[in-house]
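During the reporting period the student researcher (J.K.) took over the structure-prediction task from the postdoctoral fellow and processed the backlog of single-chain submissions. One of the processed entries is reproduced below for the supervisory committee.
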Amino acid sequence: MVASKREQQAPAGYKHTEIGVIPKDWELVTFDEAFVFLRTASYSRDKLGSTGEVKYIHYGDIHTKWSHFVNMSRSSIPTVGREMIANYSQMKDGDLVIADASEDYEGIGKSVEVSNLSLQKAIAGLHTFLLRDKDYHFVDGFKGYICSNPLVKPSLDRYATGLKVYGISKNNLKLVQIPKPSIVEQSAIVTALRNTEALIESLEKLIAKKRAIKQGAMQELLTGKRRLMGFQGEWKERRLTEIADIDPENLSSRTSPEYSFKYISLEDVNNGILQGYSNQVFRTAPSRARRKLKQYDILISTVRPNLKSHLLVRNDVTDTVCSTGFSVVRCKSNLADPAFVYAHLFAGGIERQIESMLTGSNYPAINSKEVKALRIPCPELPEQSAIAVVLSDMDAEIEGLEQKLSKTRLIELGMMQVLLTGKIRLPSK
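J.K. obtained the following structure tokens:
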């Protein structure tokens, strides 16, 4: 029998299917063939608590708390009372919970596999499907990756409907096909992916630990409770206006209409990180684009300052302007180290001062006068600089770990792309 042209084009050992090219020894099963759809509850968030006896998986938590798995013994999960579960299916380890709604296409079909349930009772809730493997089609640990499979996700997207919120119906989900390796190969894939997930989890814990250590160091070093070796002398509390110029340079109305510059808006800064900027010309620039910047200026967000969208300008910023939603602090070189002053914005002292200024305000904002009045404890300049170096070294270590975490997540994504589609086969033991 002569093979079709389509089959001839498949690589050796592979076959064409409706969802793409897969290994010849893999099967295709639909969600309807592989899973039993169990009954879920529909309690809204305001019905949930933390003291009930039954854990409750809410679709919003699937989108925000977990990636592929939910460890029921460790995760912070809302609860309901035992009396609220009589008519709903209780979960078992290995069950798959899929969110049936999302605000964007990326979240369509977001799912988690339940693990470490032990003797706890749990149900799935509002806008979820609870699925249980019918006949051991999939090993535990594999199901959490099914909806992220590059051969499955396009089908989920294709069946999704909606305008502002996208969803997939039970009947349509039942039609979606899943590539199914042998149980042995599934186990090998799970081992490889879970090892990578374990590394990701360990990096996340280490980063959290390092951040906590840095926060503790800030509380001590920035207040003088702990002194670095070799430094003595009294600290003095200073108002920012004593040690820095506030909003020293602004574009005037006489600025050339054709003057071009980089513009940093409030939305461009997130918790000390510059996420971007826009290129502007004065005649068409936003009316807030007025504050001129220099290297080592500090930007204090005066709009919703409790969000800490502050920034230290570490690099050369010729022809750069920021929004008047920031107050620009330019330290006096003989009195204050910019990195030392900037660190105070993320420590408790300045935060409490800002909170007291916002008390009773309908619009959370402070003004330049209030920025000038902010007070920080200051040692002599050499000690400020030494403290800034210690904190900067901690930041560098955390940044290095975060970069490693980002690379590991990309590695995991790449592994999923090739292992879950059969592009790379793992040897069987």
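The committee noted the following: The first strand starts at residue 14 and ends at 17.
J.K. will present the remaining backlog at the next meeting.
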